[in-house]
Amino acid sequence: MIYYPLSVLMLAGIREIAVITTPQDQDQFRRTLGDGGQWGLSLSYLVQPAPEGLAQAYLLAEAFLGGRPSAMVLGDNIFFGHGLPQLLAEADRQAEGGTVFGYHVADPERYGVVAFDSTGRVSALIEKPARPPSNYAVTGLYFLDGTAPERARAVRPSARGELEIVTLLESYLAEGRLTVRTMGRGYAWLDTGTHASLLDAGLFVRTLEERQGLQTGSPDEVAWRMGWIDDEALLARARLFGKTAYGRYLERLVKEGR
Length: 258
Prior knowledge:
Its EC number is 2.7.7.24. It catalyses: dTTP + alpha-D-glucose 1-phosphate + H(+) = dTDP-alpha-D-glucose + diphosphate. The chain is an alpha/beta fold. It has helices at 3-11, 26-33, 56-60, 62-65, 84-93, 148-153, 165-174, 195-212, 219-225, 231-240, 245-256, and strands at 16-21, 42-47, 70-73, 77-81, 98-104, 112-116, 122-127, 136-144, 178-183, 187-191. Helix 10 packs antiparallel against helix 11.
């Protein structure tokens, strides 16, 4: 699963990435991802001792960010769609304020929801509303400027004891500095936080790969296409996976060329 959100950040052109994990899971992530050098990345690792909210990530990563803008993606989110790299790159270029993405869903009451006024401007963000003001859910991908840690310090725990990301985003909205970009019908956003949604995501990815013969969420391919690693580095990765379908896929990429 970690390959999918990692590849999303890579598609945005981001190469310095901090992976935030639970204390007990960090070693496994380190073994799987290493320092990121195999993909031309620089990976750091941070621990979240307890699940105290998404906004807490900006407090944990404050030294890593060093006052710079950042993008945060949730580890159980999958994004797919033609033009996704361009959409992400545009958000990443915004130096001030914040950008989030709204996605039309059938069950908005499960998510943080965007409310729009009569002119189509964003008027509010509401966490899991009983009566959703729209069908646009806020996805688990956030581009925020360097003030995010400072804003996170002002967030107070919610009734469930967490520092809510919606509260952090509301501080940008109150200043007119939050942009909500809606993802159209050509995009897929999958939240794999339940067994059923994980199965749905697996079937979606399998259908794409069987039909197109192309991998989804491959950091090896993304790094190669971005020019961060060369043909020989990609072939070395292919040899690492031996004669598996994935190893053969990486070999085929080099034969076919960029």
